[in-house]
Amino acid sequence: MKTTAKECARVQQAHAEVGVTAIRPRPAACFVAVWLLLVVGVLVTDHIVEWQKQGRDSSISSLRSFALVGELSEIVQGLWAQGLSAAGWISANRRLLKDIRQTEDDIEEQGAVASWLRPWAQAGLLMTGVGNEKVYPGRDSWLFYRPDVDSVTGPGFLTRQQQDKRIRTAAEWEDPPWPDPVRTILDFQDQLSERGVKLLVVPTPVKPELAPEKLSSRVSVGGAVHNVSYQLFVDRLREAGVWVADVAGWLEEYQRRTGKSAYLRTDTHWTPAAMEWVCRKLSGELNGRVSWSRSDFVLPATEPSSMTNQGDIAAMLDLPETWKPYPQQTVTIERILGNDGSMWKADMNAELLVLGDSFSNIYSLDAMGWGNSAGFVEQLSYVLGQPVDRIVRNDQGASATRRLLSRELARGRDRLAGKKVVLYQFANRELALGDWRLFPLELKAAEPSVFLTLAPGEQLHVRGLVREISSVPRPGSVPYRDHVVSVHLVDISSKDDPESFSEAVVFLRSMVNNTWTGAARLRPGDEIELTLRSWDDMAGKMDGLNRSELEDLDLQLQQPVWGELEEK
Q1: Rounded distance between C-alpha atoms, residue 419 and residue 425, angstroms
Q2: 388: pLDDT strictly greater than 90
Q3: Which residues 6+ apart lie within 8 Å of 278 measured at CB?
Q4: 122-131, long-range: CB within 8 Å, 24+ apart, which pairs?
Q5: What residues have CB less than 8 Å from 319, skipping those under 6 apart?
């Protein structure tokens, strides 16, 4: 179709008018003034509120906006220490970029104006059917974790193009991820085989895979949806001789037979009944292929308990306290208890070691809101009739537990001694989004350390300087309500006696029920007072929580202590 001369003239006129749009000086000045007032007003309000919270005697340098200034000298010192080399400049740039992003995140999350407005803005979005960057609203009051959905609907995670893209698009201040799960799991199996240990891989489907009809009406009830590379992943492992559990098939069978969903409505995890179903299936496979030597295990007792809670995805919506559009859900858990009524405990001398993520921790950790002593490992121990050892950590199932196992061996603690099977459980989102880097399983001799350690039951009141601190997620940005941060503490002095210590790796509670603690606001250079106790006293309660690690591998290998900040 030809364009007429009249139409061409109108287009030219529009372009000309746009190019010469003029605003009279007075309205232009008003617009600029209003804009500057909004920007400056938010900035001033945030700083006043923060200053009042910290106390009016606090210095300006303690405010979030100035935190980066105090770290510049340390970055420059590190650069000089490396002789202004190219590697030094790259390291300094990465550190600066990371600190800038951390400062921006702190201001965005903790700013007073944003904190006041965000819940109401989220409420308005939710009324129109929109969630946020982490949450997709589903049908019938169901909620979905966006990374779960993205991992299922995104490109095939085994394609070369997708793996290269993940490496290219990594943040400049972070090490690029290792995107190939097949290569890593095969390496893991080879290392375990050298110790005479079998590997059982337990890939656990996420909610969108087996409950897609709750997200979209275009999917039929009972249908299953997987990433396009998922079956290829399973096939490659099995062709290489890896023992892979068909958890997806078992959960499909559970839903078909019971007519119930295998997942909680507003949580990322499975229901207690679905989890117990999988444990029984795993028990059958394990008992069919492994001859257990332990006959001294006393079968624990079970105790049903009713738990009511709102899921971790609902918490990420950050809605006003006065508005609760998503009802709580009640489930029945089966707590596994000792004959004396005590909670089930892992046994380091067991022949089965479970490495697991939050799907293993749900119903085990009180902090997750669904009860304790009733989780995946406890149920598996009960149906197997065998003791079980475990290394379980919320989040980063692709690497966290393998890293912890590697670290235990490097410290001289042989967690593979006497083991016949390592069961490796992880959420399927990790296949598409996780970091599948390799870790050596090398048993080393324990080396003497100058780092502070405490015996069980021992406490110490100290003052020290924060040399380095790991990252802390923003509340509501991850599907876990609690977090533990790692701190490298130096120049330690005891408040009770003149004895001094050089340094320590301290674990601190940085987030409780989606609220930052004082530890989350610590920065390198801060002088703090805290009470320290043995990590062995707290590991049973805190070791499964989502935790960030210090970047220095030597620090990761040190025995940590547990700390509690003393408020000034």
Answers
A1: 17
A2: yes
A3: 247, 250, 251, 254, 270, 376
A4: 122/317, 122/318, 122/319, 123/319, 123/320, 123/323, 126/317, 126/319, 126/325, 131/317
A5: 119, 122, 123, 126, 325
66 DSSP 8-state letter: G
Nearest Cα residue to 177 out of 553, 439, 437, 551: 437
Does the structure show a pLDDT above 80 at 355?
yes
Question: Considering the entire predicted model, what is its pTM?
Answer: 0.83
Contact 312, 545 (CB under 8 A): no
Largest CA distance in the chain: 95
Give the number of other Cβ atoms within 10 Å of residue 516's Cβ: 18
When pLDDT is cut at 50, 70 and 90, the band that residue 499 belongs to is low
Task: Find the length of the chain.
Answer: 568
Query: CB 539: neighbour CB atoms within 10 A?
Result: 13
CB atoms within 10 A of CB 269: 29
Provide the CA 265 distance to its chain's centre, in angstroms. 20
Q: What DSSP string describes 455-466?
A: -TT-EEEEEEEE
Domain boundaries along the sequence of the chain:
63-110, 135-293+300-433, 459-565
How many angstroms separate the CA atoms of 237 and 240, rounded?
Answer: 5
DSSP run (H or E) holding 553: helix 553-556
Residues 403 and 106: their CA atoms lie apart, in Å, by 28
What burial class does residue 54 get, using C-beta atoms within 10 Å of its C-beta: 0-12 exposed, 13-18 middle, 19+ buried? middle
Check if the beta carbon of residue 317 is closer than 8 Å to that of residue 132: yes
Closest CA to 486 of 404, 383, 380: 404
Strands (E), 195-276: 198-204, 243-244
Residue 568 has pLDDT above 60, yes or no: no
Q: Which of 288, 271, 277, 214 is nearest to 249 (CA)?
A: 277
* Residue 185: CA count within 13 A, CB half-sphere: 30
Among the listed ranges 138-152, 248-262, 334-348, 368-382, which one has the minimum average pLDDT value? 334-348
Q: How far is CA 34 from CA 25, 42, 48, 51, in A?
A: 14, 12, 21, 25
Q: Is 484 helix (H, G, I), strand (E, B) or coil?
A: strand
8 Å CB contact between 463 and 529:
yes
